[in-house]
UniProtKB/TrEMBL annotation:
Organism: Undibacter mobilis
Taxonomic lineage from the root: Bacteria, Pseudomonadati, Pseudomonadota, Alphaproteobacteria, Hyphomicrobiales
Parts of the chain that traverse the membrane: 15-36, 48-68, 88-106, 113-135, 141-159, 210-234, 240-260, 272-292, 298-318
Keywords assigned by UniProt, alphabetized: Membrane, Transmembrane, Transmembrane helix
Domain of life: Bacteria
Primary location class: membrane
Name of the protein described by the UniProt record: TerC family protein
Length: 332
């Protein structure tokens, strides 16, 4: 059997590396749904933290493997992208919590929505990254548009602060309720259910709130992808690094959600830190051009990105702990 095709380049990376990555992702998804959560039980915070640590460890291990196979610069670009995407995923947790609250999704079925949402993310990100890679390869100036967009997004995030999105006023919800039959009550883990139509007296298919929540989670990811995809392309234009760092950061979102949903208020300064990161990533494209550099060194990008996000997390934990202590003393 001729296996030479495995060593052929596809989008700048050997085919065997793409196949290895896909095999790991499929194995993780099968293990997650088929072994860990096949009984729709609730995920406790302790289990969530353990699983999250495992996913983060796998993501970092894959980065080490990329470093070993492709070199130091691709390895650092992967780690930078992984850190940025993981932080954006943390911001996404807050929106997902609002969606689950709005549709009153029982905790034991939230993992089902997140799992199928992740499958949609894998496909959607592949399409968006493929389009982005094609644009960048054909029109180099597109990177400057991405950079400008990131700068504007960072400014907007700083300006808007912690303003909550209004889930109930989303036009997609109105569209689904007008075009389809929607039941207001949950029916276990089902996305669809057959019920008697009071008008016709016939059994018809209804959409459940669980499916509505899934649709909103997918829409939320598309919105976040508009930020994250330009962000990673501003770090590197290698499709393999872009896609793998995205997917490994998102794969652990399901497990991370259950650990962070109840304590997301502790990360008050994470969003401002993320806004500064986007300003830095977008700004370094223009700064490198002004200084006559091909690009900012990968080690510098990784170091600055990690430092900003770590500072945001640490300062958030310190400030919220002080606030909690003050409230406790006032109530004593």
């Amino acid at each position: 059997m001729d296996l030479s095709f495995l060593f052929a380049d596809w989008l700048g990376t050997p085919v065997w590396m793409w196949l290895g990555f896909i095999a790991v992702v499929i194995a993780l998804l099968v293990f997650d749904l088929g072994v860990l959560h096949r009984d729709h039980r609730e995920i406790e915070a302790r289990e969530s933290l353990v699983l999250s640590a495992g996913y983060i460890g796998l993501g970092l291990a894959f980065g080490g493997w990329v470093w070993w196979q492709l070199g130091a610069e691709p390895g650092m670009n992967y780690l930078t992208g992984f850190v940025v995407e993981k932080t954006l995923a943390l911001d996404n947790v807050f929106v997902i919590a609002l969606i689950f609250s709005f549709f009153a999704v029982p905790r034991k079925y939230q993992h089902r929505v997140l799992f199928w949402g992740i499958l949609g993310v894998i496909v959607l990100r592949a399409i968006m990254i493929g389009l982005g890679a094609a644009l960048v390869s054909q029109f180099g100036w597109v990177l400057y548009i991405f950079a400008a967009f990131l700068i504007l997004t960072g400014i907007k995030m700083l300006w808007m602060g912690d303003k909550e999105p209004e889930i109930g006023n989303n036009p997609v919800i109105g569209f689904l309720r007008q075009r389809f039959k929607v039941t207001d009550e949950h029916h276990g883990p089902n996305f669809f259910v057959r019920k008697l139509d009071p008008q016709t007296g016939k059994m018809v298919r209804y959409i459940t709130p669980l499916f509505m929540a899934l649709v909103m989670v997918e829409i939320a990811d598309v919105i976040f992808a508009v930020d994250s995809v330009p962000a990673i392309f501003a770090i590197t234009t290698d499709p393999f690094i872009v896609y793998t760092s995205n997917i490994f950061a998102i794969l652990g979102l399901r497990a991370l959600y259950f650990a962070l949903a109840a304590m997301i208020h502790r990360f008050t300064y994470l969003k401002p830190a993320l806004a500064v990161v986007l300003l830095f990533i977008g700004g370094k494209i223009f700064v490198a051009d002004l200084l006559g550099l091909e690009k900012v060194p990968a080690a510098l990008s990784l170091g600055v990105t990690f430092a900003i996000i770590a500072a945001g997390i640490i300062w958030s934990l310190i400030k919220t702990r002080r606030s909690a202590a003050s409230v406790k003393e006032a109530g004593a």
